[in-house]
Amino acid sequence: MRPVHIAPIDVAPGLGRMDAKGHAIEGAIMMHWYGDDMGWWGYGTMAIVTAVFWALVIIGMIALVKYLSGDDQTQRDAPLSSSPADVLAARFARGELSETEYRDRIAALREVGRP
Questions:
Q1: 70: left (phi over 0), alpha (psi -120 to 50) or beta
Q2: Domain with 28 in it
Q3: Average pLDDT, integer, range 18-38
Q4: Which of 10, 14, 67, 79 sees the fewest Cβ atoms within 10 Å?
Q5: What is the reported pTM?
């Protein structure tokens, strides 16, 4: 039995001539002229962009959950009725007014309310 000789063939148009094992032969066009490695700057940039992307996704999900749940500080602190007497009572309860200031202001409100 004679050994079979395989002639060079074109594997893919535009890539140049290749032999049967897929190795480029003379006149082949180099696809990765500068190599297929990105270098340190490519990997560093890819890592930073990936970290920023996932941070934005996580922050966006937290903001969306807070928005949809209505968990807002102003809603919790706002009293149900906002009459002047209720506002004074809330300030007195938080310690923003002394007892004499509270009593004086309530008395002033009651006097204004009378004709």
A1: left
A2: 7-36
A3: 59
A4: 14
A5: 0.37
